[in-house]
Amino acid sequence: QVQLVESGGGLVQAGDSLRLSCAASGRTFNIYTMAWFRRAPGKERESVASIKWSDATARYADSVKGRFTISRDSAKNTVYLQMDNMKPEDTAVYYCAARRSVVLDRYDYWGQGTQVTVSS
User: Per-residue pLDDT tens for 5-16?
Assistant: First the structure.
């Protein structure tokens, strides 16, 4: 089992920055990829960014490219999401997730979520 705990959400204004953190504990040795997802009110959950644990290869949704940066600190078993130039449409609950399988595109562990609100 892997436990994920997010932190860093809050209320910001458009154009501001915010950094989310996700601390992983438990059987972290078998994590292949970690990612950030978000769910805005009335919308489906969407993938925001992901990072391979081994070599830090990152991927981003088109909506956040150039504004968000995902990174990881292996020593601390922590993943970060740096969000810059934030927009009101970034308002959502942000979830951290961990994936074990190299083959299956399925996330096995999820955090409880942290609210991010961007005012215009």
Answer: 999 999 999 999
